[in-house]
């Protein structure tokens, strides 16, 4: 259902100046807002100190109908956090390396004019947000939101080890270099965890990811059953041992999830494959983790320092996104 048409409609644009061509963006927005009969848009520029969350709250206070987030995954995550529970729609203008939420919403990744037009003429959809409280080694706690996933272990080390200059040149392929360097320190974590109201349990794993959706760059479907609006979070623990274990993980994620699952014949073939111990999947509305040592932590592909524990929960339907009209 398309948004109702008030007498004066206005958008806000929150953009990362390091990621976008400002002149091109302004031209595209001016054309779309004029064609749609909207008032002049408000413009906000992110900084190193203000990633977009505070700007999104300012935009919502100005009674805009939609906020266009132009930047990478960090900008999108921050703006989404600021728009939580406001019912002000978030429109995505992908300009980063991963563009994770846009991929999972099946939005165009490289057509600026189409993305801008959809912001002014599209439809609204409510999706879930992930909320996380992290604990630092000194006992300090922080609260954040995420739209795609939160992770510890090898995944977070990979993010921390990614060379920013290489990332600018080759995009998400820079993560391959980061994975190679992260595997040098691939000791398993000892984790105590609790899902929903279940009993506390322990396990060892290289990586634990809590996801709101599951598609990654390179068509890698890490969390095959995750959905943006199902009211639960999907969790996966990677627990390979040695080369054979990592090979099993690769086959499961790339071949089974990424290829077989996408066709009816492939899904029938999957019925003859057995689950592997190197991957453990869970679903939960809340998920709590305690670590035996401080570890790197990431949110939506951005490093967030080290933590000794965290607690995630789903905020069902807390974010409204603007998508192209059907």
From TrEMBL:
InterPro entries: ATP-NAD_kinase_N (IPR017438), Diacylglycerol_kinase_cat_dom (IPR001206), Lipid_Phosphate_FormReg (IPR050187), NAD/diacylglycerol_kinase_sf (IPR016064), YegS/DAGK_C (IPR045540). The keyword Signal does not apply. It holds the Pfam family YegS_C. GO terms for biological process: phospholipid biosynthetic process. Keywords: ATP-binding, Kinase, Lipid biosynthesis, Lipid metabolism, Nucleotide-binding, Phospholipid biosynthesis, Phospholipid metabolism, Transferase. Transmembrane segments: none annotated. This is Sphingosine kinase. The keyword NAD does not apply. Its cofactor is Mg(2+). One of its GO terms (cellular component) is plasma membrane. PROSITE patterns: DAGK. Belongs to the diacylglycerol/lipid kinase family. It comes from the Bacteria. It comes from Pseudolysinimonas yzui.
């Amino acid at each position: 259902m398309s948004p109702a048409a008030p007498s004066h409609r206005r958008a806000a644009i929150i953009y990362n100046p390091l990621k976008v061509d400002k002149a091109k963006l302004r031209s595209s927005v001016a054309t779309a807002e004029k064609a749609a009969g909207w008032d002049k848009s408000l413009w906000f520029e992110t900084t190193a100190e203000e990633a977009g969350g505070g700007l999104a709250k300012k935009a919502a206070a100005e009674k805009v109908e939609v906020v266009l987030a132009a930047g990478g995954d960090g900008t999108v995550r921050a703006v989404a956090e600021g728009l939580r529970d406001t019912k002000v729609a978030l429109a995505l203008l992908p300009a980063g390396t991963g563009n994770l939420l846009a991929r999972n919403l099946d939005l165009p990744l490289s057509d600026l004019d189409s993305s801008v037009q959809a912001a002014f003429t599209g439809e609204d959809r409510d999706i879930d947000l992930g909320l996380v409280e992290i604990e630092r080694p000194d006992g300090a706690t922080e609260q954040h939101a995420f739209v795609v996933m939160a992770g510890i272990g090898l995944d977070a080390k990979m993010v921390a080890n990614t060379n920013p200059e290489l990332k600018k040149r080759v995009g998400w392929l820079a993560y391959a270099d980061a994975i190679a360097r992260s595997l040098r320190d691939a000791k398993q974590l000892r984790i105590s965890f609790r899902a929903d109201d279940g009993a506390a349990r322990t396990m060892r794993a290289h990586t634990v990811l809590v996801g709101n959706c599951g598609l990654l760059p390179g068509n890698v479907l890490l969390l095959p059953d995750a959905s943006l609006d199902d009211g639960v979070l999907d969790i996966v623990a990677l627990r390979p041992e040695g080369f054979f274990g990592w090979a099993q993980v690769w086959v499961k994620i790339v071949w089974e999830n990424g290829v077989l699952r996408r066709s009816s014949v492939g899904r029938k073939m999957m019925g003859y494959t057995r689950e592997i111990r190197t991957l453990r999947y869970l679903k939960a509305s809340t998920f709590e983790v305690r670590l035996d040592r401080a570890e790197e932590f990431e949110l939506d592909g951005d490093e967030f320092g080290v933590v000794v524990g965290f607690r995630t929960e789903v905020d069902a339907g807390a974010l409204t996104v603007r998508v192209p009209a059907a």
